[in-house]
Amino acid sequence: IDYAQCRVVVVVKATVDSFVGRLNAFEPVVTIGDDGAVKSARLAFHFRDLATGKDGRDKAMHKWQQTDKYPDGFFLLTSVAPTAGANATAFGRLTLHGVTRDIQFPITINRAGGRYAIEGDATIDTREFGLPGIRLLAVLMGDPGVLVRFHLQGASPALAAARP
Question: Which of 127, 128, 119, 111 is nearest to 148 (CA)?
Fold first, then answer.
C-alpha cells in the first residue's frame, strides 16, 4: 500500500454547514491473487482519526458517534463482482457504532503492471448503524446518508516482476 496516495473522505450534507472529513490514518490491506484479481480487502480505522478542519465540529462529531464507547470502524470485503470495463461492485461488511451491516457499492480497479488503484463511493445511512439523526444547533438537520469516498493505491511486487 502506498499510503501517500491513499485517502478516505466523508461528505456530510446538512441544512447549513455541509462539510468534508478526512481520515488522517487508517489501515488498509488488499490481497491480490495470482491471476491479478483482488481477492480480499479490509480497512480498519479509529474514529478519532476523522477530522473536518474545525475543532468544535470534530468534538461534536465524536460525541454524536460516541467515539469513547465505539472507537473503531472496520470494513471487510467479501466479494467483487466485475461489471463493464474496470468497474466492479464490491460486497462487504461494515462495522460502525458497534453494528455490522452488509453493504455493496461500485468501485473502479485500475491496474498497470503490478500497480493498482482502487476507488469508489459508498453512501452509508447512519441510522442503520444505530446512530441518532445528526442535529446542529438543536434545529438544523444533517442528512443521515453520509458519502464515503476512498482511493487506495499500491503495488504487488510479484505481479510487477511477472508482468511488465
Answer: 119
| Residue 142 DSSP class | B
Q: Which residue has the cell 442535529?
A: 135
- Using CA atoms, how far apart are residues 124 and 105, in angstroms rounded to an integer? 10
Q: What string of DSSP letters covers 19-50?
A: EEEEES--EEEEEE-TTS-EEEEEEEEEGGGE
pLDDT digits (tens, 9 = 90+) for 48-82: 999 999 898 888 888 878 889 999 999 999 999 98
Confidence (pLDDT) at 34: 85
Instruction: Spell out the SS3 assignment of 51-109.
Output: ECCCHHHHHHHHHHHCCCCCCEEEEEEEEEEECCCCEEEEEEEEEECCEEEEEEEEEEE
Angle (CA) 99-13-110 rounded to 5° is 75
CB distance 103 to 94 below 8 Å: yes
